[in-house]
Amino acid sequence: MATVARAPSDSAPVVDGRRPSIAVVDDDSGFAGYLRTFLALRGYDVRAYSRGDEIIAAIKQGEPPDIVLLDVAMPGMDGLQTLKALKTARPEMQVIMLSGREQAQIIVEAVRLGAADYVVKPGDPEGLGDIAHDSAIKQAIERTRLVDELTSLRRQLSDDQDQAFLGWGDSPAMRQVAHIIEQVADSDVTVLIRGESGVGKELVARAIHQRSTRKNKPFVKVNCAALPAELLESELFGHERGAFTGAATTRIGKFEQANFGTIFLDEIGEMKPPLQAKLLHVLQDAEFTKLGSNKKIEVDVRVVTATNRDLEAMMLRGQFREDLYYRLKVIEAAVPPLRERREEVHQLSHFF
Asked: Which of 42, 150, 235, 339 is least crowded, fewest Cβ atoms below 10 Å from its Cβ?
Protein backbone atom coordinates (compact mmCIF):
# COMPACT_ATOMS: atom_id res chain seq x y z
CA MET A 1 0.00 0.00 0.00
CA ALA A 2 1.14 3.57 -0.63
CA THR A 3 2.01 5.87 2.25
CA VAL A 4 1.78 9.65 2.05
CA ALA A 5 3.93 12.38 3.56
CA ARG A 6 3.45 16.13 3.23
CA ALA A 7 5.34 19.02 4.75
CA PRO A 8 4.93 22.74 4.37
CA SER A 9 8.06 24.06 2.66
CA ASP A 10 8.91 26.53 -0.04
CA SER A 11 12.00 24.63 -1.20
CA ALA A 12 10.35 22.59 -3.94
CA PRO A 13 9.47 24.27 -7.24
CA VAL A 14 5.78 24.83 -7.85
CA VAL A 15 3.90 23.23 -10.76
CA ASP A 16 0.57 24.79 -11.76
CA GLY A 17 0.16 26.33 -8.31
CA ARG A 18 0.75 23.08 -6.43
CA ARG A 19 3.65 21.19 -4.92
CA PRO A 20 5.14 18.56 -7.23
CA SER A 21 4.29 14.93 -6.48
CA ILE A 22 6.93 12.21 -6.37
CA ALA A 23 6.50 8.45 -6.18
CA VAL A 24 9.33 6.47 -4.57
CA VAL A 25 9.28 2.83 -5.68
CA ASP A 26 11.68 0.62 -3.71
CA ASP A 27 11.34 -2.71 -1.90
CA ASP A 28 13.77 -1.48 0.79
CA SER A 29 11.25 0.07 3.19
CA GLY A 30 13.97 1.70 5.28
CA PHE A 31 15.54 3.46 2.32
CA ALA A 32 12.15 4.43 0.90
CA GLY A 33 11.04 5.82 4.28
CA TYR A 34 14.17 7.90 4.74
CA LEU A 35 13.99 9.27 1.19
CA ARG A 36 10.29 10.04 1.56
CA THR A 37 11.05 12.07 4.69
CA PHE A 38 13.88 14.02 3.05
CA LEU A 39 11.75 14.83 0.02
CA ALA A 40 8.76 15.82 2.15
CA LEU A 41 10.96 18.22 4.11
CA ARG A 42 11.95 19.77 0.79
CA GLY A 43 8.27 20.48 0.13
CA TYR A 44 7.33 17.61 -2.18
CA ASP A 45 4.12 15.58 -1.98
CA VAL A 46 5.51 12.04 -1.70
CA ARG A 47 4.08 8.54 -1.95
CA ALA A 48 6.10 5.38 -1.38
CA TYR A 49 5.49 2.01 -3.05
CA SER A 50 7.26 -1.27 -2.40
CA ARG A 51 6.57 -2.98 -5.75
CA GLY A 52 6.42 -2.07 -9.41
CA ASP A 53 2.88 -3.36 -9.87
CA GLU A 54 1.68 -1.01 -7.09
CA ILE A 55 2.75 2.15 -8.94
CA ILE A 56 1.31 0.80 -12.20
CA ALA A 57 -2.04 0.14 -10.47
CA ALA A 58 -2.02 3.62 -8.91
CA ILE A 59 -1.48 5.27 -12.28
CA LYS A 60 -4.27 3.23 -13.88
CA GLN A 61 -6.57 4.45 -11.09
CA GLY A 62 -5.80 8.04 -12.05
CA GLU A 63 -3.10 8.94 -9.54
CA PRO A 64 -0.09 9.78 -11.73
CA PRO A 65 2.81 11.55 -9.93
CA ASP A 66 4.95 14.20 -11.61
CA ILE A 67 8.10 12.12 -11.09
CA VAL A 68 8.87 8.50 -10.28
CA LEU A 69 12.07 7.53 -8.40
CA LEU A 70 12.38 3.86 -9.35
CA ASP A 71 14.72 1.25 -7.89
CA VAL A 72 16.42 -0.98 -10.46
CA ALA A 73 16.66 -4.16 -8.38
CA MET A 74 13.29 -5.31 -7.04
CA PRO A 75 11.78 -8.81 -6.69
CA GLY A 76 9.04 -9.79 -9.12
CA MET A 77 8.58 -6.87 -11.51
CA ASP A 78 12.06 -5.29 -11.57
CA GLY A 79 12.86 -1.66 -12.27
CA LEU A 80 13.38 -1.96 -16.02
CA GLN A 81 10.14 -3.91 -16.47
CA THR A 82 8.31 -1.30 -14.39
CA LEU A 83 9.91 1.51 -16.40
CA LYS A 84 8.74 -0.06 -19.66
CA ALA A 85 5.19 -0.41 -18.30
CA LEU A 86 5.18 3.18 -17.02
CA LYS A 87 6.34 4.62 -20.34
CA THR A 88 3.79 2.52 -22.22
CA ALA A 89 0.96 3.77 -19.98
CA ARG A 90 2.18 7.39 -19.86
CA PRO A 91 4.97 8.21 -22.34
CA GLU A 92 5.40 11.69 -20.86
CA MET A 93 6.12 10.29 -17.37
CA GLN A 94 9.46 11.45 -15.92
CA VAL A 95 11.23 8.45 -14.36
CA ILE A 96 14.57 8.62 -12.52
CA MET A 97 16.22 5.25 -11.92
CA LEU A 98 17.88 4.47 -8.57
CA SER A 99 20.58 1.83 -8.19
CA GLY A 100 23.02 0.63 -5.55
CA ARG A 101 25.87 0.83 -8.07
CA GLU A 102 26.65 2.30 -11.46
CA GLN A 103 26.13 -0.33 -14.17
CA ALA A 104 26.79 0.82 -17.72
CA GLN A 105 24.59 -1.84 -19.34
CA ILE A 106 21.65 -1.05 -17.07
CA ILE A 107 22.07 2.70 -17.62
CA VAL A 108 22.05 2.28 -21.41
CA GLU A 109 18.94 0.07 -21.29
CA ALA A 110 17.15 2.46 -18.91
CA VAL A 111 17.83 5.43 -21.18
CA ARG A 112 16.69 3.42 -24.21
CA LEU A 113 13.41 2.67 -22.43
CA GLY A 114 12.87 6.36 -21.69
CA ALA A 115 14.36 7.04 -18.24
CA ALA A 116 14.99 10.74 -17.60
CA ASP A 117 18.08 10.10 -15.45
CA TYR A 118 20.01 7.52 -13.42
CA VAL A 119 21.10 8.18 -9.83
CA VAL A 120 23.34 5.98 -7.68
CA LYS A 121 22.03 5.41 -4.16
CA PRO A 122 24.18 6.79 -1.33
CA GLY A 123 25.90 4.35 0.99
CA ASP A 124 24.53 5.91 4.17
CA PRO A 125 21.29 7.66 5.20
CA GLU A 126 22.99 11.08 5.43
CA GLY A 127 23.61 10.92 1.70
CA LEU A 128 19.87 10.85 1.00
CA GLY A 129 19.84 14.61 1.22
CA ASP A 130 21.90 14.68 -1.95
CA ILE A 131 19.10 12.90 -3.83
CA ALA A 132 16.49 15.27 -2.38
CA HIS A 133 18.57 18.25 -3.51
CA ASP A 134 19.64 16.60 -6.77
CA SER A 135 19.29 18.67 -9.94
CA ALA A 136 17.89 15.58 -11.73
CA ILE A 137 14.61 16.04 -9.82
CA LYS A 138 14.34 19.74 -10.65
CA GLN A 139 15.17 19.07 -14.29
CA ALA A 140 12.52 16.35 -14.44
CA ILE A 141 9.96 18.73 -12.92
CA GLU A 142 10.86 21.37 -15.51
CA ARG A 143 10.40 18.80 -18.30
CA THR A 144 7.01 17.87 -16.83
CA ARG A 145 6.00 21.53 -16.80
CA LEU A 146 7.11 22.00 -20.41
CA VAL A 147 5.27 18.86 -21.57
CA ASP A 148 2.07 20.02 -19.84
CA GLU A 149 2.42 23.49 -21.39
CA LEU A 150 3.04 22.05 -24.86
CA THR A 151 0.05 19.71 -24.53
CA SER A 152 -2.14 22.62 -23.47
CA LEU A 153 -0.96 24.78 -26.38
CA ARG A 154 -1.53 21.95 -28.87
CA ARG A 155 -5.01 21.37 -27.50
CA GLN A 156 -5.79 25.09 -27.73
CA LEU A 157 -4.52 25.25 -31.32
CA SER A 158 -6.51 22.15 -32.23
CA ASP A 159 -9.65 23.61 -30.64
CA ASP A 160 -9.13 26.93 -32.45
CA GLN A 161 -8.70 25.16 -35.78
CA ASP A 162 -11.69 22.95 -35.06
CA GLN A 163 -13.89 25.91 -34.17
CA ALA A 164 -12.69 27.83 -37.21
CA PHE A 165 -13.45 24.89 -39.44
CA LEU A 166 -17.00 24.59 -38.15
CA GLY A 167 -17.35 28.36 -38.49
CA TRP A 168 -16.99 28.12 -42.25
CA GLY A 169 -20.71 27.82 -42.63
CA ASP A 170 -21.45 30.29 -45.38
CA SER A 171 -21.56 27.63 -48.08
CA PRO A 172 -24.23 24.92 -48.25
CA ALA A 173 -21.57 22.26 -48.85
CA MET A 174 -19.67 23.07 -45.65
CA ARG A 175 -22.86 23.34 -43.65
CA GLN A 176 -23.60 19.81 -44.84
CA VAL A 177 -20.13 18.63 -43.71
CA ALA A 178 -20.64 20.25 -40.28
CA HIS A 179 -24.05 18.58 -40.02
CA ILE A 180 -22.52 15.17 -40.76
CA ILE A 181 -19.84 15.74 -38.12
CA GLU A 182 -22.42 16.54 -35.46
CA GLN A 183 -24.59 13.56 -36.44
CA VAL A 184 -21.85 10.89 -36.42
CA ALA A 185 -19.47 12.15 -33.72
CA ASP A 186 -21.03 10.27 -30.80
CA SER A 187 -21.30 6.96 -32.65
CA ASP A 188 -18.48 4.59 -33.57
CA VAL A 189 -19.40 4.17 -37.24
CA THR A 190 -16.59 4.38 -39.77
CA VAL A 191 -16.46 7.58 -41.81
CA LEU A 192 -14.94 8.01 -45.26
CA ILE A 193 -13.87 11.60 -45.96
CA ARG A 194 -13.44 12.48 -49.64
CA GLY A 195 -11.91 15.50 -51.28
CA GLU A 196 -8.93 16.87 -53.14
CA SER A 197 -5.54 17.28 -51.47
CA GLY A 198 -5.49 20.30 -49.17
CA VAL A 199 -9.24 20.75 -48.64
CA GLY A 200 -9.06 19.93 -44.91
CA LYS A 201 -9.90 16.24 -44.65
CA GLU A 202 -7.77 15.86 -41.54
CA LEU A 203 -9.59 18.78 -39.90
CA VAL A 204 -12.87 16.94 -40.47
CA ALA A 205 -11.42 13.79 -38.90
CA ARG A 206 -10.15 15.73 -35.87
CA ALA A 207 -13.50 17.51 -35.50
CA ILE A 208 -15.26 14.13 -35.40
CA HIS A 209 -12.83 12.88 -32.75
CA GLN A 210 -13.08 16.05 -30.63
CA ARG A 211 -16.88 15.78 -30.51
CA SER A 212 -16.94 12.08 -29.68
CA THR A 213 -16.84 10.27 -26.35
CA ARG A 214 -13.25 9.32 -27.27
CA LYS A 215 -12.03 12.92 -27.29
CA ASN A 216 -9.76 12.42 -24.26
CA LYS A 217 -8.18 9.34 -25.82
CA PRO A 218 -5.54 9.23 -28.57
CA PHE A 219 -6.07 10.54 -32.07
CA VAL A 220 -3.51 8.75 -34.25
CA LYS A 221 -2.90 9.69 -37.87
CA VAL A 222 -1.31 7.39 -40.45
CA ASN A 223 -0.51 8.50 -43.98
CA CYS A 224 -0.88 5.35 -46.04
CA ALA A 225 0.96 6.96 -48.97
CA ALA A 226 4.06 7.83 -46.95
CA LEU A 227 5.42 4.30 -46.51
CA PRO A 228 5.99 1.29 -48.79
CA ALA A 229 3.56 -1.60 -48.26
CA GLU A 230 6.00 -3.77 -46.28
CA LEU A 231 6.68 -0.98 -43.78
CA LEU A 232 3.08 0.23 -43.59
CA GLU A 233 1.95 -3.10 -42.12
CA SER A 234 4.54 -2.79 -39.36
CA GLU A 235 3.53 0.84 -38.82
CA LEU A 236 -0.14 -0.10 -38.40
CA PHE A 237 0.10 -3.36 -36.46
CA GLY A 238 3.61 -3.46 -35.00
CA HIS A 239 6.12 -6.29 -35.10
CA GLU A 240 8.03 -8.66 -32.88
CA ARG A 241 11.79 -8.63 -32.65
CA GLY A 242 13.30 -10.55 -35.58
CA ALA A 243 10.06 -10.49 -37.62
CA PHE A 244 12.03 -9.23 -40.61
CA THR A 245 15.50 -7.93 -41.44
CA GLY A 246 16.17 -4.85 -39.36
CA ALA A 247 13.51 -5.60 -36.73
CA ALA A 248 15.91 -5.33 -33.79
CA THR A 249 13.23 -4.62 -31.18
CA THR A 250 9.53 -5.22 -30.58
CA ARG A 251 7.38 -2.35 -31.88
CA ILE A 252 3.86 -1.26 -30.94
CA GLY A 253 1.76 -0.37 -33.99
CA LYS A 254 -0.53 2.60 -34.52
CA PHE A 255 -3.69 0.57 -33.90
CA GLU A 256 -2.42 -0.39 -30.46
CA GLN A 257 -1.40 3.21 -29.77
CA ALA A 258 -4.90 4.37 -30.72
CA ASN A 259 -6.68 1.91 -28.42
CA PHE A 260 -9.89 3.45 -27.02
CA GLY A 261 -9.36 6.42 -29.34
CA THR A 262 -9.53 7.18 -33.06
CA ILE A 263 -7.20 6.17 -35.88
CA PHE A 264 -7.23 8.31 -39.01
CA LEU A 265 -6.02 6.50 -42.13
CA ASP A 266 -5.22 9.19 -44.65
CA GLU A 267 -4.85 8.33 -48.35
CA ILE A 268 -6.52 4.94 -47.81
CA GLY A 269 -6.62 4.43 -51.59
CA GLU A 270 -2.84 3.91 -51.57
CA MET A 271 -3.08 0.79 -49.40
CA LYS A 272 -2.26 -2.43 -51.27
CA PRO A 273 -4.85 -5.28 -51.44
CA PRO A 274 -2.98 -7.74 -49.11
CA LEU A 275 -2.91 -5.13 -46.35
CA GLN A 276 -6.51 -4.17 -47.11
CA ALA A 277 -7.47 -7.74 -46.15
CA LYS A 278 -5.80 -7.38 -42.75
CA LEU A 279 -7.51 -4.02 -42.18
CA LEU A 280 -10.86 -5.62 -43.04
CA HIS A 281 -10.18 -8.30 -40.41
CA VAL A 282 -9.56 -5.61 -37.77
CA LEU A 283 -12.81 -3.86 -38.66
CA GLN A 284 -14.77 -7.12 -38.48
CA ASP A 285 -13.23 -8.73 -35.39
CA ALA A 286 -11.55 -5.83 -33.53
CA GLU A 287 -8.33 -7.82 -33.24
CA PHE A 288 -5.07 -8.32 -35.11
CA THR A 289 -1.63 -9.94 -34.81
CA LYS A 290 1.76 -8.26 -34.99
CA LEU A 291 4.22 -9.24 -37.68
CA GLY A 292 6.14 -12.27 -36.46
CA SER A 293 3.58 -13.18 -33.80
CA ASN A 294 0.60 -15.52 -33.45
CA LYS A 295 -0.81 -13.74 -30.41
CA LYS A 296 -4.08 -11.89 -31.03
CA ILE A 297 -4.37 -8.33 -29.74
CA GLU A 298 -7.84 -6.92 -29.12
CA VAL A 299 -8.43 -3.22 -29.78
CA ASP A 300 -11.29 -0.77 -29.35
CA VAL A 301 -10.60 1.80 -32.04
CA ARG A 302 -12.77 4.04 -34.17
CA VAL A 303 -11.59 4.15 -37.79
CA VAL A 304 -11.88 7.28 -39.91
CA THR A 305 -10.39 7.26 -43.43
CA ALA A 306 -9.78 9.79 -46.18
CA THR A 307 -8.96 9.66 -49.85
CA ASN A 308 -8.60 11.86 -52.92
CA ARG A 309 -8.90 8.89 -55.27
CA ASP A 310 -11.84 7.30 -57.07
CA LEU A 311 -12.30 4.15 -54.99
CA GLU A 312 -15.19 2.95 -57.13
CA ALA A 313 -13.01 2.93 -60.25
CA MET A 314 -10.26 1.19 -58.26
CA MET A 315 -12.74 -1.53 -57.26
CA LEU A 316 -13.58 -2.18 -60.91
CA ARG A 317 -9.87 -2.56 -61.65
CA GLY A 318 -9.40 -4.92 -58.71
CA GLN A 319 -7.18 -2.45 -56.85
CA PHE A 320 -9.50 -1.92 -53.88
CA ARG A 321 -11.55 -4.55 -52.06
CA GLU A 322 -15.29 -4.12 -52.39
CA ASP A 323 -16.01 -5.56 -48.93
CA LEU A 324 -13.54 -3.14 -47.34
CA TYR A 325 -15.00 -0.23 -49.30
CA TYR A 326 -18.46 -0.81 -47.85
CA ARG A 327 -17.01 -1.28 -44.36
CA LEU A 328 -15.24 2.08 -44.57
CA LYS A 329 -18.07 3.99 -46.25
CA VAL A 330 -20.77 3.60 -43.61
CA ILE A 331 -20.91 7.41 -43.60
CA GLU A 332 -19.36 9.58 -46.29
CA ALA A 333 -18.38 13.24 -45.99
CA ALA A 334 -17.34 15.10 -49.12
CA VAL A 335 -15.24 18.23 -48.55
CA PRO A 336 -15.42 20.63 -51.53
CA PRO A 337 -12.37 22.64 -52.68
CA LEU A 338 -12.21 26.32 -51.83
CA ARG A 339 -12.90 27.36 -55.43
CA GLU A 340 -16.42 25.98 -54.93
CA ARG A 341 -16.99 27.96 -51.73
CA ARG A 342 -15.40 31.32 -52.43
CA GLU A 343 -17.67 33.07 -49.94
CA GLU A 344 -15.46 31.62 -47.19
CA VAL A 345 -12.19 33.18 -48.43
CA HIS A 346 -12.73 36.30 -46.29
CA GLN A 347 -13.36 34.24 -43.13
CA LEU A 348 -10.31 32.07 -43.77
CA SER A 349 -8.00 35.01 -44.42
CA HIS A 350 -9.25 36.68 -41.23
CA PHE A 351 -8.62 33.52 -39.21
CA PHE A 352 -5.08 32.97 -40.52
From this structure: 339
